[in-house]
Amino acid sequence: MSALAVDLGIAVAKVGFVMGFVLNLGGLMTWVERKQSAVMQDRVGANRASIFGLRLIGLFHPLADAIKMLTKEDFIPARADRALFLAAPFVSVFFALAGFATIPFGDVLRVGGREISLQAVALNAGILYVFGMLSMGVYGVLLAGWASANNYALLGGQRAAALMISAEIAIGASIMGVCMVYGSLDLQEIARGQGAYWAGVIPKWGIFTQPLGLILFLTAGIASTKRIPFDFPEGESEIIGYFIEYSGMKFGMFMMADFVETVVIAGMTTALFLGGWQVPWLFADGFQFPGGLSVGLPHLVVVALQIGAFVLKVVLMCWFLMLVRWTLPRFRYDQAMRLGWLGLLPLAVLNIVVTAAVLLL
Amino acid sequence: MATLKPVLVTRQVPASPRQRLYLVEVLIGLGVTAGHFFRNMGRWLSGGKGAVTYQWPEERRPLAPRLRSLHRLVRREDGSPRCVACMMCETVCPAHCIYIVAAEHPNPDIEKYPERFDIDLGKCVFCGYCVEACPEDAIRMDTGILEFSAYSRAGMIYSKEVLLGLEPAGADGLPTVQPPAAVIRRGFP
Asked: Which of B23, B26, B36 is facing A42, going by the closest CB pair?
């Protein structure tokens, strides 16, 4: 087998893992959203969909959703711009999915003399790439609003675009502190940098080095996913949103883009602030606890633990984002704009200044 | 006569600095909902019930015995309706949803009987005046049946035969008979 074929195989396997992880988690989120909100609100939640009387705590609901969305009438308004109307959901979902590519899910896997970096695409400007992908999502929303030939959709698209831009500038600014502390734009390098320890005890995770950055990033991240409390692109009761003219699976793709963006934000938070794939006190050759106790582990077990830790952290972050979504009431539009431009952005700049001052001293 | 003290209603309580910061209050709110989540998850995982809701129609909430549910007509020992077609209920009904056609009874002890006794449940407001007004205790609202529906307005008109076929609710407040299928009466007044 030629080296090229092996490289290709490895690349396909990594992309397959990431795509499978993101898509499955995104699909599962439709169930999690219903079930978690129910448990939080003392309800029972989704449990009606059944196959031969088997309900499996509502796990068939995503399947029922899929059947419903595929069999619904596929409607295109008469005066809509057909090409743009059809392209918009694809644009939305593509850029949401592509965002996860540079997020590392493990350190280096050594197999047969090869060193495989465990991320779908090894980019030395990974953060910039994720930002690019996240901000391109605005185009899907704007196109949907414009191409629908519906004033409500247009208004919803404008609101969504204004919100996402105000949020994404704050995301970009809030991340700079992390890049400065770990001295890299490569997400893999940042994850490695979080393996250091203060006094050998406290891991140097982003949550401890950049607490303000974490809060700003989470706030702006939730805003960029267009979900409650920043859901005024949809704003169900007063404006119906940029996807008002979409039906069936095209509407489903917008919903899926939101869920996938949530997963991407959870992955970014994990990679930047929660230590990425780092397990506390787990080094390349096993655990080395602060007390001097050490446990040796084979390489494959270490890699498996790292991947497991990453998946666990992402799932926990998804849980947290759902918790936020089902706890907070919606912002008013001008409040959210003020929060984005006059709250998050200045604070993020302040965070950069303070971080730079601390690093220089 | 007691006088009511005027109460000053402030339109908006000024927010404290902590509330204006917003973040602390958000974290408290998240703590409340997360607390519900973990408490309910603990109940689910230990085999309990982590919800306050009823899973209708599998689980039915027991109703209070005095709740006014679907009407029924009470029978005598011989099976004939107790109703003597006195028109009291029809007269007292604020929704005008009861229609009685009276006829001569063959038994000389009973003056009249209802040839037709229809209730238009699409109009009924479930006030219970008919039950109160009836001198013969011929109509009651104790079936415990709350689920009856129809695809047409005519289907909401329940006839004497249907109403006579209903039974009172059991001790737990749950109906002892199935909710009647909608009966369509043509030529209704």
From this structure: B36
